[in-house]
Amino acid sequence: MAKVFVYDAYTNKMLHYQLSESDPMPYSYGSTLKVGEFRGSSGAAVLWTTVAAMEAWNLTRRSYGSAIPVGYAFKRIWEGGHGTTSQHYAGVAFDVGQSLGNTQRRKIYDTAVDTGAWGYVEPLSMTPTWVHFDRRYGTPACPNTTAGYPTVRRGSRNTYVLILQDALNALGYSTKTLDGSFGTNTEKALKALQKDFSLTADGICGCASWKRISSAVVGIGRTSTVIDK
Question: Where does the record place the Peptidoglycan binding-like domain (predicted)?
Answer without folding.
Answer: 161-211
